[in-house]
């Protein structure tokens, strides 16, 4: 397995600091968030990390040239911010399953990638989406998975209203996907917000390639805005 960390987004919700400092470089103790995330993937068995950045975010590359996370780290560029699905496709086409870990989602508590790899193994190497249950009134902020009794994903709905949501299992910053997803990403049309969405490509593959949900036990921290980062620091340092 490899791990892809998309970290090329503009970080507008965390401006102005993100004009110069990528949000993925914000510190947790003495490590930037993206190193905490990379180490999570390595602990779950990733043998290589591919980080997707933009030319404005060379700081991330300079950082990883100076630290060792135990596996090779390579960089790919997303020159236009066309969305998460596009960023993942920019990492190239791996021939093995890939964890995808959002560069602005730190998980505190048990390692979600370890739990997701176990779910994949239990289902013959199927794809897995990391999920967290959220209060019904907040589902409209997330992609929501509809699951059958066996935990298989039968549908994905991007930012549904609470009435239309197929449940309360929100897509939460972690994926484990087989190489076939890259075929769907290659011709994925823009969706919500005019962006090429990873959710849309996974939705198209559901019929042919099984994908299971894994409600992981850690807590997903979204460091994409100052309030989320503050909460994440409290949780990370055990004061939350
Ligand atoms: P977000 O949508 O949270 O990040 O994407 P963003 O676009 O930087 O946020 P705002 O809205 O401008 O504040 C989740 C992850 O996907 C990456 C981001 O860097 C982040 O780690 N991403 C997003 C890309 O790499 N490329 C994109 O085109 C979009």
Topology (SSEs and partners):
Elements lengths: L1 E5 L20 E2 L2 E2 H11 L5 E5 L4 H7 L8 E5 L6 H7 L7 E4 L3 E4 L3 H11 L4 E7 L9 E5 L5 E6 L10 E9 L2 H7 L11 H8 L5 E5 L3 E4 L3 H11 L4
Parallel strand pairs: 1-4, 1-6, 4-5, 8-12
Antiparallel strand pairs: 2-3, 6-11, 7-13, 8-11, 9-10
Helix pairs in contact: 3-6, 5-6
The chain binds uridine 5'-triphosphate.
Task: Report what the structure shows.
The chain is globular. The longest helix has 11 residues, at 33-43. A hairpin with a 2-residue loop joins strand 2 (27-28) and strand 3 (31-32). Helix 5 crosses helix 6 (198-205). Helices cover 26% and strands 26% of the residues. The chain is of the alpha/beta class and 240 residues long. The chain is built from seven helices and 13 strands. The chain has helices at residues 33-43, 58-64, 84-90, 112-122, 180-186, 198-205, 226-236, and strands at residues 2-6, 27-28, 31-32, 49-53, 73-77, 98-101, 105-108, 127-133, 143-147, 153-158, 169-177, 211-215, 219-222. Uridine 5'-triphosphate (UTP) binds next to helix 3. Residues 6-13, 24, 52, 78, 81-84, 86-87, 102-104, 224 line the site of uridine 5'-triphosphate (UTP).
């Amino acid at each position: 397995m490899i791990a892809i960390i998309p970290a090329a987004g503009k970080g507008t919700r965390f401006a102005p600091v993100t004009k110069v400092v990528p949000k993925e470089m914000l510190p947790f103790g003495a490590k930037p968030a993206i190193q905490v995330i990379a180490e999570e993937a390595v602990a779950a068995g990733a043998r290589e990390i591919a980080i997707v950045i933009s030319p404005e975010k060379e700081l991330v590359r300079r950082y990883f040239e100076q630290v060792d996370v135990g596996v090779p780290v390579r960089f790919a560029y997303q020159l236009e911010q066309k969305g998460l699905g596009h960023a993942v496709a920019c990492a190239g086409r791996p021939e093995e399953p890939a964890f995808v870990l959002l560069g602005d989602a730190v998980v505190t508590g048990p390692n979600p990638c370890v739990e997701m790899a176990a779910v994949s193994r239990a289902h013959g190497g199927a794809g897995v989406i990391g999920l967290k249950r959220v209060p019904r009134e907040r589902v409209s902020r997330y992609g929501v998975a509809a699951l059958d009794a066996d935990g298989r994903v039968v549908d994905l709905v991007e930012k549904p209203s609470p009435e239309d949501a197929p449940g309360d299992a929100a897509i939460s910053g972690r994926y484990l996907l087989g190489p076939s997803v890259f075929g769907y990403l290659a011709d994925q049309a823009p969706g919500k917000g005019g962006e090429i969405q990873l959710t849309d490509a996974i939705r198209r593959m559901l019929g042919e390639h099984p994908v299971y949900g894994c409600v992981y036990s850690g807590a997903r921290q979204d460091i994409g805005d100052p309030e989320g980062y503050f909460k994440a620091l409290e949780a990370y340092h055990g004061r939350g």
